[in-house]
Structures are given as structure tokens and as C-alpha cells.
Automatic annotation (TrEMBL), chains A, B:
Its cofactor is Mn(2+); Mg(2+). PANTHER family: 3-ISOPROPYLMALATE DEHYDROGENASE. GO terms for biological process: L-leucine biosynthetic process. Pfam families: Iso_dh. Pathway: Amino-acid biosynthesis; L-leucine biosynthesis; L-leucine from 3-methyl-2-oxobutanoate: step 3/4. The keyword Manganese applies. The gene is leuB. Binds 1 Mg(2+) or Mn(2+) ion per subunit. Homodimer. The lineage of its organism: Bacteria, Pseudomonadati, Thermodesulfobacteriota, Desulfuromonadia, Geobacterales. Its EC number is 1.1.1.85. Belongs to the isocitrate and isopropylmalate dehydrogenases family. LeuB type 1 subfamily. This is 3-isopropylmalate dehydrogenase.
Amino acid sequence: TKHFKVAVLPGDGIGPEVMAEALKVLDAVERRYDVRFERTPANVGGAAIDLEGKALPETTVAICQAADAILFGSVGGPKWESLPPNEQPERAALLPLRKTFDLFCNLRPAIIFPALTGASSLKQEIIEGGFDLLVVRELTGGIYFAEPKGIEGEGPARTGFDTMKYSEAEVERISHVAFAAARKRNKKLCSIDKANVLSTSVVWREVVERIGKEYPDVELSHMYVDNAAMQLVRWPKQFDVMLCGNMFGDIISDEAAMLTGSLGMLPSASLSEGTFGMYEPSGGSAPDIAGKGIANPIAQILSASMMLRYSFAMIDAADAIDAAVEKVLNDGYRTADIYQGHPGEKKVDTVTIGDAIVAAI
Amino acid sequence: TKHFKVAVLPGDGIGPEVMAEALKVLDAVERRYDVRFERTPANVGGAAIDLEGKALPETTVAICQAADAILFGSVGGPKWESLPPNEQPERAALLPLRKTFDLFCNLRPAIIFPALTGASSLKQEIIEGGFDLLVVRELTGGIYFAEPKGIEGEGPARTGFDTMKYSEAEVERISHVAFAAARKRNKKLCSIDKANVLSTSVVWREVVERIGKEYPDVELSHMYVDNAAMQLVRWPKQFDVMLCGNMFGDIISDEAAMLTGSLGMLPSASLSEGTFGMYEPSGGSAPDIAGKGIANPIAQILSASMMLRYSFAMIDAADAIDAAVEKVLNDGYRTADIYQGHPGEKKVDTVTIGDAIVAAI
Ligand SMILES: CC(C)[C@H](C(=O)O)[C@@H](O)C(=O)O
Ligand SMILES: CC(C)[C@H](C(=O)O)[C@@H](O)C(=O)O
């Protein structure tokens, strides 16, 4: 029997509700495969601020350190919105988690499930047949972490400043992940930068170009970030894998995710160099629908699937979860966020769609 | 007779063709209003590299310095794509022009013309009745200009770095422009930042908040840039004026422009503190259709209209140009980029639509 330790951080808003469904799915995997997931819950985000005085308590970090992977829900909500921006639950939980566990590689798939093309903001003719792109975002470098940053001076000269930085080594390691991912997909990598203005991007582009020589089967292109923001809207199918630095990836991956119209469907993985990783839905804590039992648990369930795939090398089990989600969608199950009233659709609550996915595994 | 000096910089690709139509429109304005536009042409971009060895020759700068405003076409094309990114025509022409003339304020309207909703990538139900938002982008500060920037170190530690900076004074002056613009529109201003991570954004948000007190009739909100990239796709009508720093404005304004589906329709203005400004289409030089006489000149013509409005205080004449463009669209005139084959549409070339606009003034 394989044995994995999972730190379970449900967080705020819909986090606990959708996490419950993902844990049911892990139960189902235990029944079907020879594996045990030892789960240890821990507080994070607003819930942790309320209970332990900070968004990422030491006890939570220790539980994560003892685990093989982190399954993360979502954090934040109106209750904590009056805190200064840099103390808000999302930022105060996520940034230190990423740094502590060197989660340098963020994988954010943006997929339109063929059953759900109607949910996208885009016209039918643009998304006909769906699209499937993967944003690979560097997650522990760039302007979100580099020093120096701060505020100095007085009066009108008082100036806020930040530093953007990337070393060759940092770009190399994220490039390898992106090229390897492209190799397993449609063999196209588009690297996003602003090399016509930023020195950081000049190094970024040189290194991506150099690493690309080791992956001659992958077609490499470069695109300025402003153009990428346009091209995503115009014709998202032109992209397979998009490789971005931390800040550009933040913006581009959110834009791509929203284009699918199914934010509640999209998982994400934040990986370190070994097998350790953190897995969380791309969407937020959706405080407006929290506690109503109507949230879409699929992003959380697919995050658990990514955990099996990337941290536990349980490819079959991950494929089984993904297939179960697809089957349940094809069977017409829809939570409110993806219900469109088409014939054959059944509007169901969080637990019902979770049960259906469990039954399909 | 009023007298204004205009530096005319057609540039590359479709630049000269669409500029010719804008100049015809200025002729029409001269015929109808008591004004003379003294126009001096100058080389810029790839054309200037070829003829004078650099994208922004001193002679061109001198001509601009002697003028009351710059009417700019577009620059760049495949011929110069093998140049290093920072020597490419667009970057090498635009950044020094902005700095030399202190063009700190970039106004980029993103409008869906009711006659053209079909051209947008967005679903009909999202853009029903069109939308009309204005991005106000700070254009001479932030990470595109601040020092230090460069590359240092060797081997894997070789690091590219840039500095992002905003002083209170810089944020104040762009905020005033944005609030004043909102006051004349729908009285809503959304300021875009990343104040949960960037110190620059902390100062940005504080100053915008403070200046906002002087405009109590304008409803102010703040949004993180990643969320803004999503919200634009989800529901662009929620925005009236979006205020952004240089880099966020670069990305957000391009995304917003592409959402309209009518890049060839959108003008822009880059203003200094006095009445001097530079006016140019939001789209690029479209080398694929250059020389064919089929480019859409409307963005260039509306840029001329913005010049009359902002640099020459000729509001009536600007309104007349805008109304003429609207009439010609309502009459069914369409260049290829906006032709959709609907009943009543006439597919016409650059000169024909230009003539129709001139006739309507
Ligand atoms: C909360 C914030 C710091 C974070 C980021 O920008 O990295 C979030 O937006 C994300 O993308 O995970
Ligand atoms: C060419 C480039 C430097 C420029 C910018 O990013 O400012 C362009 O993209 C623009 O938006 O006008």
C-alpha cells in the first residue's frame, strides 16, 4: 500500500465545501487503488487570522512541511477586506507558502470543456470545439519577490519602488518545465515577455531561446505581453503552452482562465523541484455563495487530480478522476455557475455533483 | 484665422495610406472652419532607419519641437524584425518621443461602435448596445523608464533587472487627468494596481485615493490588475475610466482595445502638461495589408479629431469629424477589417471611406 501525507488547507468562503468533495474523491481513489492518503487539516487565510492571529500560522507551515503535498482551498472574503492590501488573507497566505516551499512553477490550465462552450464570454465561432492552453508561470521570482522594494522620500517626492529581476538559473528551471510540458502536449511554446523595454525580459528571452535548443521538437515563439493580452482575446486556439514570468503570468493566466467562462472548473498546481507541490482551484473563495452548498467543486477535485499526477505519480488515478469529471459533465450535471438551461442539463448542488463524480470513478 | 503647426509622421506599413486620409480630413476642417494647419512631414520608425539611420532622427525631433502637435501613423514591420528588440522601430521611436515631450498621459478609448458589435470577439449578450471605456495610462514613468536597469553577473547568476517606481507627484498629475475625464463621462473611475504585492502600487493607491477626495462626484474603486484582466473579459460595461500605471496600462489598454474587435477604429492621444500632444492609431502598421489601399483609416482620422479636441481646443470641429465617421458607418461604409457582409454594408477601400468622411464633414 502506497502512503502519502496530504496537508489539507480548506481556507475561507466556499473552500471548506468544495474541499469536502475533493476529500470524498480521495476516498474513492483509496477504494479503487492500493493507496492511503493521510490527511492533516490546517488553518489558512482569514480563518487562520480569526483563530490563530495570522493568515499562515507556524503550525500550518509545520503540517505542510511534514506532508508530501498541500491541497489548498481558497482564501479571502469581505470580512478581511479592510486589512491593508499586503495583510489580506490571499496575499499573506500564498506568497510565504510559495517562498517557504520553493514553489517556483505554477501550472494553470485554461480549458474550455466541450460540454461548456456556452459559458465562455467569447463568440461561438472563436471557441468552436473548445480550447486547451496551459500557462506556465514562474512563481517565486520576478517583481513579486525581488529586493529592494519599499517607499522612500517625503511629500511629492515620496516614491514607491520595486525591483524586477530574473537570473539565468531561474529562467532555466522554469523553461525546462515549460518545454517538457509542451513536448507532452501540442509541441508549441510561446514565451511572453517585454524584451523591447525590460532588461529582465532580455535575459528571459535569451535563456528561453537557449534552452529551446534542447527541445528541437517544440516550436518556440516569443510574444510581447501587451500583444499576448490581445491575441488571447482574438484567437486563443493559437496557443498551446504560454511561458511567463511571475507578474505577466499572474495577469495572462487570469485572463485566459476567465476566457473559458469556467473559472470554477480550473485547477492549478504550484510545484517545487522535487515532487512536493501545492494544488488549488484557480478561482477565488466566492464569499457571495459560501455556505449555500451550491459552489462548483470541480476545480478543487481536478486540483486533487493534479496532486496525484504531479506529486504522487499516480497517473492512472488522475486520469480516472479527470474522466469521471468529463462523464458527469456529459451526463448533464451542472452546478449553478455552469448551468445554461440547455436540454439534458440538470442543475445540482455541490454534494450531488461530488457524489456523481465519486460514483463515476 | 487660427494657425496650428502639425508635425506629420506617417511611419511604416499602412501609416502613409491612412495618414493621407487624415490629412484630407484636416483639409475639410480648414474649408469649414477658420483655421490653417501647417503640416511638416518627417521620417520615423523603420522608414527613418532606412533613410536616416535611426528610428527617431534629430531632424524629426526638431520638426516636432517646432510644432503644436504630432500626428503619428504607425511604425514597424518584418523588415526590421531581426533588429534587437530594443532597437525595433516601435520601441526606438515611441519611448524617446514620449520622454522628450513629457507625454505623461496616454488616453486610449476602447469603444464598440453600435454599428460594429459583430466585430467583437465577445458574445452578443455581453456587448449588446456597445461599450465605451477609456483607459488613462501613465506614459513616462514606472518600470518602462525608471533606473537602474540592466544586466549583471556571469553564468547562471547573470541577472536582468529593472526598477519600477512612482512618486506621489507623478501619480497626482495622471490622477487629475483621469478624474477630470471621468467627471465628463459616466463619473466612474477604477484605478488598477497590485497593491497587495508592489510598494509602487501602495503609493499609487494612496495618492489616487487622496486626489479622489477633490472629485467627490466621481465614484472611485480599486482593482488588482489580474482581476482587471478578468473583469474586462467578463463584463467590460462595468468600466467607465480605468486609470493605470505605464506597464499595467500597456497590457490592459491593448486587451480592452482588442475586445472591441475594431482595433482599426481606435485612436489614442499622448498628452503633456500644456496643450502639446501626440496622436496615433491604437493599432499597428499592419504590414500584411500595407500598400493595398484597403486599410481602415478611421483610427487615424479619429486621432486627428483628438488632436483638434485636446491640443487645439477645436471642440466643434472634433465633434464634426466624430459625427462624420459615425454617419459613414451608419451609411454602411466598411473597409475589409470591419466588413461583415450584413445587408446594407458596402465593402470599400481606404480612399473611398476617407472621401465619404470628408464629404460628411
Ligand atoms: C494573492 C496574490 C498575491 C496572488 C498573486 O498575484 O500571485 C494571486 O493573484 C495569484 O495569482 O495566485
Ligand atoms: C513599443 C512599445 C514600447 C510600446 C509600449 O509598450 O509602451 C507600445 O506597446 C505601446 O503600447 O505604445
